[in-house]
Amino acid sequence: MSDEMTASLIPALSDSELREIDEEISHAPYRSAVAIDALKIVQAHRGWVSDESLRAIARHLQMSADELEGIATFYNLIFRRPVGEQVILLCNSITCWIKGCDKLQREVSERLGISLGETSSDNRFTLLPVTCLGACDKAPVMMVGDDLHEDVTPEALLSIFPGEEEPGA
Ligand code: FES
Questions:
Q1: What spacing in Å lies between the alpha carbon of 93 and ligand 1's midpoint?
Q2: What is the C-alpha separation between 19 and 53, in angstroms, rounded?
Q3: Which one of 52, 93, 96, 153 is CB 3.0 to 4.6 Å from 12, fit for a cystine?
C-alpha cells in the first residue's frame, strides 16, 4: 500500500485526540481558547500537525482553518511538516548569536549531517532554528527533544549526541 493510501486511512483526529481536546474544552471559557493545547495534543500523538488534522481541529473548535493556521504559525513549536524522532531547536536570537550559535549550528550540522530545516536520513533528528528560548544568560542554548541544553560548547555536543560520528572522524 502506498504512503498516500495509508495516510488516507488515518483519521484527521483520532478518538483519543478528540477526548483529550474535549477535556481541555471542558475547562475553557470558549472552544477556540484551547487552540494551542489542541495543536499540542495532536503533535504529541503524531509528531507534527498535517493540513487535514489542522482543518479537523479548526472544525472541532468552531473556528476557521486560516485562524488556526495563524496561531500554529505564530507558535513556532508546532511542526507543520513531518519531523524526525528528535527535534533540535537551536536558538538564533541575539544573545545566542553573540555567543556563537552560528558556529554551534555548523558543528551540529557536521556531526549529524543535516543543515537547518533538514531531517537526517535515518529520521532520528530534525534541526530547526528557533527564537529566544528564554535562557539568554546561559547562551548559546538549544533544545533536543524536551531537554534544554545551556552554555553549549562544541565539546558538549559529544555528550549530547553520543555515538554520532563526525563525517571522516
Ligand atoms: S537569545 Fe537564545 S535563549 Fe535568549
A1: 5
A2: 15
A3: 52
